[in-house]
């Protein structure tokens, strides 16, 4: 299962994280 969500916690890395 792959889900991509944006990370509002990391200001430096404003990319999508997929797990």
| Rg of Cα set | 8 Å
> What profile does the largest beta sheet have?
2 strands, antiparallel
Task: Output the number of helix runs.
Answer: 0
Looking at the structure, what is the overall shape?
A: elongated
In spatial order, strands of the major sheet run 1-2
Number of strands: 2
Distance between the ends? 8 Å
Residue windows where pLDDT falls under 50 for at least 5 positions: none
Order of helices and strands: EE
Indicate the mean pLDDT.
Answer: 74
Report the β-strand fraction as a percent range: 25-35%
Q: Would you tell me the structural class of the helices and strands?
A: mainly beta
Query: Which range best describes the helical content: under 10%, 10-25%, 25-40%, 40-55%, 55-70% or over 70%?
Result: under 10%
Polypeptide structure, described:
Strands 1-2 form a two-stranded antiparallel sheet. The termini are close together. It has no helices and 2 strands. The model has no long low-confidence stretch (mean pLDDT 74). The radius of gyration is 8 Å and the shape is elongated. Helices cover 0% and strands 32% of the residues. It has strands at 4-6, 16-18. The chain has 19 residues and is an all-beta fold.
